[in-house]
Every structure is written in structure tokens, then in C-alpha cells.
């Protein structure tokens, strides 16, 4: 009897598991390998890529098109355009998002109108429009509106109540117009991203912070925004990468201090098109790759602590299972 009980409690034999075969997976790998080999063959054997023109020299005593002085200057301009446009976009986007969430209907309506307009108009159209705003005014200034009309009512002709003004062509240069077009457009998208991030935070936390005596601004700055950043950062990284590529649109303003404009100028002078476009693709690939690495570390910084409890529980259960111990069931599993 004792022997039968012992045999009944004996551990079962080890399961001889047979690995699941994945013929479709191997077929897909084979097809991808052939396609990759065909792509490498195209890059290596087709002389029309003209790799020497791209990397080594575009003429006697000159560097390759990727590393010539004007292209490097345009590269710096592209980076500056991206930084300034994102600075305006993020800063103004936060303000518009807070206005949209305000209980004041006027602020909320103005924020909605701004978002509607700048999301509806394509960035290329905005860039060209801002580049031609100088047509509307000779000078742009700050002062009393309708000053001439008011002066005429009182018999004062040519009344000028402008406190400060500057020539429109000096203020709205191509670079400034491009930055404003990209930055104001980006602010509309960032407003929606920030609004979604703020709404993802449990309202009870803001209520609890207010109950402790914190002001609304401090609650937003110290409680809501730090938690919302985990939701805001990934789409903001995507927007930054998209902005790098969209800076090429200001070449139509035109902004000469820009990468794609400089490469197009070289293509027009040398009548060599494809290698110049390949050089442009390589520079944009490099810039976007760097930003993706930065995005990874920023996401990891703001995602600290989230999911750590679940990972710790899984690790603890794995250790317990290896040692034959049994952990108590979670509250959710008891029901």
C-alpha cells in the first residue's frame, strides 16, 4: 500500500517535447536573403550610383558631394531649423493644449481654432505663404490699430501710432519665414499630443495634490506633466524625426541655408541628379538615426518605474518555480 502511494506520488516522466516546425518562417528568411543580396548587387555593380562622386571627389581638388562646404553649411542649417521649429512647436503646443483643456470656453475655442487651421493647411503651402507675407506690408510693427482711420476722424492726416516697426523684408527673411511656418504648424500637432498625455493622467492625482494646498500651476508642473511625459515623449520623437525631413520643404521659400537646397544647387550645376539624391538620403538617414538613439534614452528615462512591479513579480515567480515553492495567488486570480 505504501509502495503504491509512493508510486502514485512519483514525479511524471519528463515531457519529450518536439520543436514546432516553421517552414513558412524559413521560406520567408530565404526570400528576404535573396532580396537583400539583389539589393547589394545593385549597389555594388551599378556604376550610375557614382559612389566616388558622393564620397571622394566631385572635381579636381574638391571633396565628395556629401562633404563639400556648402552641403555641410546646409546641414548645419537643417539642424538649426529643426531645433528652432521644435522649440516653438513644443512650447506653443503646451500652451495651446492647456488652453484647450481650460474651463474657460473662450480659451478653449481659440485653441481649437488654432489647431484646426494649422492642421488643415499643408506645411509646403504654409512655408510658401509665410515666405511671401512681405507682400502684405512694407513695415511690421506694434502700436494702435486703425491709427490712420482714427486720425482722419479727428482731422489728423497720416497719424502714425506705431510704437515700434521694422521693414517686413528684414523681419520675414526666408529663414525666419521657414522657422515660423514649421514651428507654428508643429505646435498644432504637439498640442494634440500634449492634450492626450495630460488626459492620460488620473484626475484623482491632481485633485489630491490640490487638496494638499498646491496651486494649479504647481500641480501641472510637478504632478501631471512628469507622468504625462511617458505618453508624450514617443510621439514627440516621431514629430522631431518628421521635422528633420520636412525642413526640405523650405527649399521652396527659398531658404538657401538648408541641406536639400544646397544639394539641389550642386545637381543643377553638375547635371548629376541621382548621386546627389542618394547623398541627401544618406544625410537624412544619419540625422534620423541619431535622433532615434536619443529618443530611446529619453523614453527610458521617463519610463523608469513603470512596469517594474510586474517584471519583479514575474521574476520572483520564476525563481520560486525553480525552487519548488508556491507563491500566494494574486487578488485578481482569487476571484
From TrEMBL:
Q: How does it sit in the membrane?
A: Multi-pass membrane protein
Q: Which UniProt keywords apply?
A: Amino-acid transport, Cell membrane, Membrane, Transmembrane, Transmembrane helix, Transport
Q: Which Pfam families match?
A: BPD_transp_1
Q: Which CDD domains match?
A: TM_PBP2
Cellular compartments per GO CC: ATP-binding cassette (ABC) transporter complex
> Where is the protein localized?
Cell membrane
Q: Where are the transmembrane segments?
A: 26-44, 79-99, 111-137, 271-298
Could you provide one GO biological process annotation from this protein's UniProt record? Answer: amino acid transport
Chief localization: membrane
Where's the ABC transmembrane type-1 domain?
A: 75-295
The text of the family note is: Belongs to the binding-protein-dependent transport system permease family.
Which NCBIfam families does the record cross-reference, listed alphabetically?
A: HEQRo_perm_3TM (TIGR01726)
Q: What is this protein called?
A: Polar amino acid transport system permease protein
Amino acid at each position: 500500500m505504501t509502495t503504491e502511494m509512493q508510486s502514485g506520488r512519483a514525479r511524471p516522466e519528463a515531457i519529450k517535447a518536439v520543436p514546432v516546425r516553421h517552414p513558412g518562417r524559413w521560406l520567408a528568411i530565404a526570400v528576404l536573403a535573396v532580396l537583400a543580396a539583389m539589393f547589394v548587387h545593385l549597389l555594388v555593380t551599378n556604376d550610375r550610383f557614382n559612389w566616388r562622386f558622393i564620397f571622394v571627389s566631385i572635381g579636381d581638388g574638391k571633396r565628395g558631394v556629401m562633404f563639400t562646404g556648402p552641403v555641410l553649411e546646409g546641414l548645419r542649417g537643417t539642424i538649426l531649423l529643426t531645433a528652432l521649429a521644435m522649440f516653438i512647436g513644443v512650447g506653443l503646443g503646451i500652451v495651446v493644449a492647456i488652453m484647450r483643456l481650460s474651463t474657460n470656453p473662450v480659451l478653449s475655442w481659440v485653441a481649437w481654432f488654432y489647431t484646426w487651421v494649422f492642421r488643415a493647411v499643408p506645411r509646403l503651402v504654409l512655408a510658401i505663404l509665410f515666405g511671401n507675407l512681405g507682400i502684405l506690408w512694407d513695415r511690421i510693427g506694434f502700436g494702435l490699430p486703425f491709427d490712420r482711420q482714427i486720425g482722419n476722424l479727428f482731422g489728423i492726416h497720416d497719424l502714425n501710432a506705431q510704437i515700434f516697426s521694422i521693414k517686413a523684408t528684414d523681419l520675414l527673411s526666408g529663414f525666419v519665414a521657414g522657422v515660423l511656418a514649421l514651428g507654428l504648424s508643429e505646435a498644432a500637432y504637439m498640442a494634440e499630443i500634449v492634450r492626450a498625455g495630460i488626459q492620460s493622467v488620473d484626475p484623482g492625482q491632481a485633485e489630491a495634490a490640490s487638496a494638499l494646498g498646491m496651486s494649479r500651476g504647481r500641480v501641472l508642473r510637478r504632478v501631471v506633466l512628469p507622468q504625462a511625459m511617458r505618453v508624450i515623449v514617443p510621439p514627440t520623437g516621431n514629430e522631431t524625426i518628421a521635422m528633420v525631413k520636412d525642413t526640405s520643404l523650405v527649399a521652396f521659400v527659398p531658404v538657401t541655408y538648408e541641406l536639400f537646397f544646397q544639394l539641389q544647387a550642386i545637381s543643377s550645376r553638375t547635371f548629376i541628379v541621382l548621386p546627389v539624391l542618394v547623398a541627401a538620403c544618406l544625410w537624412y538617414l544619419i540625422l534620423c538615426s541619431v535622433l532615434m538613439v536619443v529618443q530611446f534614452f529619453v523614453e527610458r528615462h521617463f519610463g523608469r518605474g513603470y512596469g517594474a512591479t510586474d517584471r519583479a513579480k514575474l521574476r520572483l515567480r520564476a525563481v520560486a518555480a525553480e525552487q519548488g515553492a508556491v507563491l500566494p495567488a494574486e487578488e485578481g486570480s482569487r476571484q
